[in-house]
Each structure stands twice: as structure tokens, then as C-alpha cells.
Amino acid sequence: MADLQRTESGSLKGLLEALLLVSDDSVPAATLAQAAGVEPGEASRALTELAAEYAEANRGFQLREVAGGWRLFTHPAYHDQVADYVLSWDTRRLSQAALETLAVVAYHQPVTREGVRAIRGVNSDGVIASLREKGLVREVGRDRDHGGAQLWGTTRLFLEHFGLRSLRELPPLEDFAPDEESKRFIRERLSGRSISSTLEEAAEDMDDERELLDDYEDSAESEAPEPMADPAPGADAPSESETSER
């Protein structure tokens, strides 16, 4: 088996590898070239060479050009084992940062990375990438009002792991925190609100709607027309012909 060529410190190939490792989606060569400060053609050649080196060495990962860009993938020969490994992860052992981020995404989705950062107060890009690898969050669209930023939401796997039929059954995620300190952090990071408050507010909204409906029905009854009073004494009674026409 051939060995991978040694990548010198500060080399273009090493930089491209680093950029690809932190990218969630396929990245065009032109974008990588701009980030690396080189010409697109030079970046394309380096990427092609890297892909060939990985393939020749039969590594557990591959570099492929897909959807107009380059992206790292696990080797197809190990897909079954990788899938079993990912699905076996115990979500109850998520770190404090992962729990906070997952709570924000679950209760504020669809939400951008910047939206998560604004709530947590720290950069959450790495945590979101980890949650995506675990299959718990996914990209659900783009925010046109904020430069096409990715919008994140939870997945079907998230529902399965937490035993939910739908997002309407979301439990307080602080129940999955490993200790009381983590629970406190989750409450504080979510703008001082208990993460169960969303469901409580939804129930309150339903109660308010019922009250408004009851008030409307009472108002309708009070405004109903009163029965017609008997004609005043001396008033002309309708003739038989008028009665029949009515």
C-alpha cells in the first residue's frame, strides 16, 4: 500500500485539507483558492492531486468533486460500520455545549448559526457540525434576509432518539443534562427561559383562544334581536291578504 506524500507545513495541500475539514458542504475550487490566496487553477490541480493520493493510499476517506465543489467523504467500504457507529451514539451523553445548541435549534428552528450564537453567546459552528455528523440537525433552507445563511432544524433521527412523534411533544431538554449545573446553564443560555416554556406558552395561547371564542359567543347571544312586541293598542292589524303574502 502506498504511503501518503508528506505535506509540508504551510503548503497549499495542507491548507486545502484544513479548509475542507471545517466545511459542511462541497466547496468550489474558486472559493478554496480565494481563501488560500492562490489562483483557481492552482487550487484545482492541488485538489486533484490530493484526491489521487487518497485513492492510491486506499485511505478511510476520499476527496471527491461533487455538486460543483470538493468535499471529503468516508470510504464506501466502511459505510455500514460508520452508519452503525453513528446511530449507536447515546444522545444522553451529549456535552453541555451540544445540549445547549441542540435546545436552541429544537426550540427556535429554523435558525441560523448566527442566531444560535446570539442566544448562546459563543460561536457554535463546531458544535453544529458535530450535531450534524450525529444526524441530529440538518440544513432546512436559506435565510434570504441574511445573505442566504444556512437555516438549521432537527431531524427525524432526533425525534427517534428522544422518543417523540413530532416536535409538538418536545420535552424539556434539560432533563437530559448530566448534572444540575448543566441544567442551570441551559436555562440561562436560553435567554433566561426554561426550555419547556415554549410548550407552556402554546398551551396558554390555546386557553386564550378558547376564552376569546367564549366571549364572542356570549357577545353574539347578547346582540341577538329581541322578539317582536305586540302591536300597540289602536294600531291597525295586518289584513288577511297581507298575512298570506308574508
Layout: helices, strands, pairs:
Elements: H1 12-21, H2 29-36, H3 40-57, E1 61-66, E2 69-74, H4 79-87, H5 96-108, E3 111-112, H6 113-120, H7 125-133, E4 137-143, E5 149-154, H8 156-161, H9 180-189, H10 197-222, H11 240-245
Antiparallel strand pairs: 1-2, 3-5, 4-5
How much beta, percentage-wise? Answer: 5-15%
Q: Could you give a short account of the major beta sheet?
A: 3 strands, antiparallel
CATH class of the domain at 90-189: Mainly Alpha
H and E string:
HHHEEHHEHHEEHHHH
Low-pLDDT residue spans: 191-206, 237-246
- How many beta-strand elements? 5
Q: Strand pairing plus helix content: what structural class?
A: mainly alpha
Number of helices: 11
The proportion of residues forming helix, as a percent range, comes to 40-55%
So what's the overall shape?
globular
Round the Cα radius of gyration to an integer and report it: 31 Å
Task: State the distance separating the first and last CA atoms.
Answer: 103 Å
CATH architectural arrangement of the domain at 90-189 = Orthogonal Bundle
What is the mean pLDDT? 75
Strand order of the largest sheet: 3-5-4
Per the CATH scheme, the topology name of the domain at 90-189 is Arc Repressor Mutant, subunit A
CATH homologous superfamily descriptor of the domain at 90-189: Winged helix-like DNA-binding domain superfamily/Winged helix DNA-binding domain
